Every structure is written in structure tokens, then in C-alpha cells.
Fold these 3 entries.
Entry 1:
Amino acid sequence: MTYLLDTNACIELLNERDAPIAQKLASVIPQIVRVCSVVKAELFHGAYKSYRRDANLALLNRFFERFESLPFDDAAAEQYGRPRAALEKQGTLIVPNDLWIASIASEKNVTLVTHNKSEFGHVTVC
């Protein structure tokens, strides 16, 4: 099984919190854990607006070295279109970044690691 970290999971790991996600990931080898370009963008955004910009950017770069990065590519774009159309018909929209992350996870057939069940719980991908 391969895991894709959502932004909130990365933040827990970066802040060295003793959370269930950190405990679980400590039991798996880093080679089966991924981040994606959308999560990286969200984390870079947070670092650039922080008071400790340089330190946070350095921390992110060290963190990202540990994991393979998955892009939002054409295959993920198609995965994005299906659930978004279904959610619009239901009148249930989620944050676009979260839908992009879910689409990458679906297209790459990896397990998404997140605390954000309220958003991701609405997404059914095909």
C-alpha cells in the first residue's frame, strides 16, 4: 500500500506532533509515502506568509526530500472532472485544492492520509 499525505498530515509531521498519523507513518518505510504538487503548493504558501519564512522554507525542503512527489497531470485532471460534476449536481462543493489532491490519489491508486474527513468524505472517484 502507498500513502499520499494531505496538507494537514504534513503539518503534523513537520510540527513533530505525536498524533495518530505520525505514529502510523513511523511504522511504514518512507519509500511508500508520497506528497503531491498541490500539497507542496499549500505548504509553500504557508511558509511564505509566515514570520519564520526562511526557516520554514528550509524545513519544507528537507521534508520534501524524503518523499516522491506526485504531479497533478492530465490523468488526474480527468479524475477531477468526474467527481466535481457529481458534487455540483448534488449541490455539494469542496475546496478545489482538496478535490485536486483526491484526484491525484485516485489516479495514482494510493491511500490518502488526512484528518479532513468533512471535505474528502464527499468525494467518490471513479
Entry 2:
Amino acid sequence: MNINEVYQLMDKFEGSTLSELSIEMEGVKLSVKKPGAGIEQASTFKGRENNAAAPQTVTPAPEAASKSSKAINAPLVGTFYRAAGPGEKPFVEVGQQVRKGDVVAIIEAMKLMNEITATEDGIVEEIVAEDGNLVEYNEILIRLS
């Protein structure tokens, strides 16, 4: 992680609703906390930079899915993408049938592409998150019916 990446991360953190962020990567630890912030909301990333083509698979925690039983929520903070790359076909469209475990989107965090998978079978009712926008932890990305 270079200093420019740290500044970019801090800019995104500053514009988010998070109150605290801790990252441990390549033996370096970074923790930031907004003034007056309590422990009510925090996000922790652990990992190492990986430029390999294979993305990580991230499955939302059970408490994230409990907000709406038919919603796919963001398991981490990052940039939401509907497709694997610019100009490529989106993973899912409204009206499409998905099965538990199907890749429905990607969230880029710390230069890692994290596959977001369907938490249950259903039909895509709405794609709530905007392609290319920053999403917060536990934010609803996609609604299923």
C-alpha cells in the first residue's frame, strides 16, 4: 500500500457514514476514527494486495441479510460494479432468476475484486446500488422476490 492509496482510502472514509476503519495489510496497520465516534459502527479489512485475476468470493454475514429477508446486502465497504468490466454484460438484470451462490455483482475494496453472491434463490426485483458508486457495509444492493 503506497501513500497515494492511503490518501484515497481516507478520502472515501471521510465521505462515508462509517465512524471507524481499521486495515491490516502487508504487515502495515492503519486505523482511523472520526472525532466523537463511538463503537457503534466499524469496518475492518484484513488481507494483502493481490493483482491476480481471480476475485475473492465474499458472502454477506447472516446479520446483514436479516434486515430484509429477500435482499442482498453489501458485506463490505467498496465500489459496486454490476459487471466484471467496462462494456461487459451485467451479472444480473431485473427479472432474472438467481440461485443461492450465483455471482450477482462485484465490490472493489483495496484493489481486490470481491464477488458478491446471492444469499438465496429468487428473482431480481430491483438493483438498488448504482454501478460504480461507493457502497457502505450492510447497504442493500439488490432486492429479490
Entry 3:
Amino acid sequence: MKATVAVIRCENYQIENVRVAVQRGIQLLGGVSAFARAHEKILLKPNLLSGSRPEKLVTTYPTVFQAVAEVFKATGANMFYGDSSGMGSLERVARQAGIKEVADNLGIRPADFQTVAPVSFPGALLAKQLRLAAAVLEADGIISIAKMKTHGFTRITGAVKNQFGCLPGLQKAEFHVKMPDVYDFSRVLVDINSYLKARLRLFIMDGIVAMEGNGPSGGEPAAMKVLLFSTDPVALDAVFCRLIDLDPEFVPTMKFGEESGLGVYKPDEIQIIGDDIEPLINKNFQVVRRPPERLASARSFPTFLKNRISPRPVINYERCINCGNCVQMCPVTPKAVDRPDGDKNKKPIYDYKRCIRCYCCQEICPEKAITIKIPLLGRLIY
């Protein structure tokens, strides 16, 4: 059978419009009763990358979260929500993102995303051992509410990558150190989803206003006017790619997701229902349209040459407010980005010989001060 993805047009974030779109998308996939029942523990997993205001479009928009929460709360399920943010506690980040107020009004409590629960996964592509947030394993069902954004490392942040937030604490940074190659890292993303497959009941993507360019936190708004729904995260991400005219072959989680049995991504394996997708396609969407660099190929060059050809994060010091988030998030020791001489009055600088190109610094920068650039020699090669 083909994977089914519901494409629902939604003009804006007004709650009345979002409610109609969410209800329609879920109904097209069989109705809410297909995904939750009374008294079940249902975890809502939004994208809460950082404590950014809703209008910055870094996180799942509050009205999308609200509309989804209302639908599932009506089933009589026991609802809770959570994500492991890059910076700060769940409640603080959720409050800043506008999610906490919505959850509080609906009586939906924050989940335990601090306690670590170790699990074994012998069938994994790569990550045979995982340490997940306790709340994820306590849930009977998970509703994943991703945000439509670009990503400097994996090309897109979508339905598959949203479950990276199921790793609590500093583990996300640790995985970047352990898996600096984007293809290995993508295998880990697939492994997390595959382990949780029995619990992951529905994937929803907020693409009403997406983020293009320097995502996942420093990009620009792009009105895509769409919500996506599917039980297959790989197929949903493939439709996201189609909407932005990106070859899904350039997103490593696609092939690995198919290989693991997580989902499918080829057009003839996906049935699109709902609204006509063609008018929603944005061929001018700003995204890198080439495969990510393989670490192995970079290693084949001497270090001095690699640093002159590989894409790398660059700080715009006119934008930089010297908040230190990039230093805090850098996962390597010694830091690849740090303040000179440890002086907090000085703005951070890079030592590219230490940089593993995980782009955690770029991902967490609140001022869009860090971008990914290819050196001149690299541009000639790429």
C-alpha cells in the first residue's frame, strides 16, 4: 500500500482557520479515533528548538499546537507535551514560544524530558543504545508536530528530525560529536524514529509560514500556507521536499528511512490527498539544493585544505550580541568557537581546525548572526 499524506491549505495562523485545517487533515486520515482513545497517555511533541517568540517562526506555532491539542483532548485521552530544547528548561522555552499558555489553558501538563531512560535497540542502523526522555516511553501514543524549516546540516528540519528532541539534556550535542558525518547522524535520526515507531501515531507539519534560508533558527519567513499530515514521517518529509522543489535524494534520512522500514519517499509510493499540491509548490524557496558533504570525502583532504573547501559557520559581528549561546552549544573540547582568552567582553571567534561542522552554533543563535558559508576554493569545487 502507498503511504498517504494529507496536504491542507491554510492561509494564516488565525485559530479559526487552523482549527478547520487540522480537523480536516486528521479526518482525511481516518479521524482522531484512529490515533487516540480515552484514558490513553498521549504526548504532543512540538518543535521547541529554543525560547523564541512565535513570530520568529523557529518553533511550532501556538495556534497549530492549540488546534491539535483540542482535537486530541476531546477524545478523553490524558494529554501532556514536551521537547528537549537546546537552551533552557521545557517550561521556560515553552512559555517564551507561546506553547505553555495554550497548554495551561487546556489543562495539558508538561512532560518529564529530563529523566533519562536507557534502551537497547539491536535492530538499529547505527544507534544500538539510546537514552530517551522518560516521558517518551511512558506515552501510549505520540503526536509529532514538526515545523517546516531548512537546516544547514541535514538540509531540512522535518517530521523525522523532530524526534531528535526525544533525547534529553546534552545528548544532542554529544551525538554531534560522536556522529560528525551527516550520513551517520541521519542514521541515528532514523533509529530514534524506528525505536519509537509503535508509539508514533501521527505526524503533523506546520508549514503555514515556513523558514527558508539560514534555518533552523536564523532564516527568513516563507508563506507556504500549508499543513501536512501523515502516519509516515519519511513520506511527509518527501512531500515537504516536493513543495520546496528539493530533490529528496539530497536528504539523507530518506534512503535510510526506507532502508529501515520506517517509511517511503519515492513519488510513486506516496498518495497525496486533500488540496491540490501544485499551486502550493515554491520553486524559489531558499534551500541548499545539493547533497550534504560526506565527512569521509572531507577527510581525504589534508586538514589545511579541508578548512579551505568545507562549508563552515561564520559570525556576522554587526549582528552578534555576545550572548555566548554558540560557545555554550559547541559540543567539542576544546571549543571550536570561544571568546578569546576566555574574556566575556570579547565576541567569540572560530578555530576551524577544531570545528566538526555540526552547526549547533548556527542552529541556536538568537540573532541570525551565524550563517553557513563555503570558502572561495570550496565554491570552485562544489
